[in-house]
Amino acid sequence: MAKQAGTTTRSVRGSRTGRPIMVLLDLLGRRWSLRILWELRGEPLTSRALRTACDEASPTVLQARLTELREAGFVELGDGGGYGLTTLGRELCETFMPLHRFAERWKR
Amino acid sequence: MAKQAGTTTRSVRGSRTGRPIMVLLDLLGRRWSLRILWELRGEPLTSRALRTACDEASPTVLQARLTELREAGFVELGDGGGYGLTTLGRELCETFMPLHRFAERWKR
DNA sequence: TCCGTTGCTACAATTATCGTAGCGATACGC
DNA sequence: GCGTATCGCTACGATAATTGTAGCAACGGA
Known about the structure:
The structure is a homodimer.
Chain A: H1 20-28, H2 33-39, H3 47-53, H4 59-71, E1 75-77, E2 83-85, H5 87-106
Antiparallel strand pairs in A: 1-2
The structure holds a DNA duplex.
């Protein structure tokens, strides 16, 4: 990967139209993105606590996702360490809350 | 990939806990999953129309996602051809509708 | 100083996705 | 029948993303 730093280097990813909803669906469609937001829905977590919460996912991807989510303004790194949702990120997370009930109803 | 047919063959994917919400977040976190549901939100689309709607995404992945989404009960293949959302899939899609407004508000 | 934890990175191996091409089946007009 | 067009779907090599393991520098207690 093009080791994005600062500016968003998009290689083959979707959302070539630039429409906000497409960019958002593309970002959230990356692996662990939704899961990270979900796990941060409560209190902030340290990078390692987050990794534990995410089934010991590879730190490489977690860091990549955290960087992307931070650039998107959904996640922030607190002063005393630990990742948490921004106000914007919390609003986004609220959008997904109905998913919980849906999921329970879904798997019979 | 293990060419899943009938039963769900999960290789390295997340959601090892089996909790419905995790399975759902995992499924929706695959590439083009969210986008497919989004594009099918209106009328049913043929596989090729769907491909066009999804920025000419590779048919390989689209078919894989469609199979998964069908097994999940969100998408169905109509009698006269064309993919559409099931009742369940439509409910799921409704959950994402607030995302549209959020996305517009998001990108300044 | 020695531990322990923080956020974060390197690197090779494994998967997933891409892009192009093409299949069998079906439905048309001729 | 014959060609043509579409349908859903698949093969396959090339490329990009993800995994798993190991480890870094920085900071804080003991």
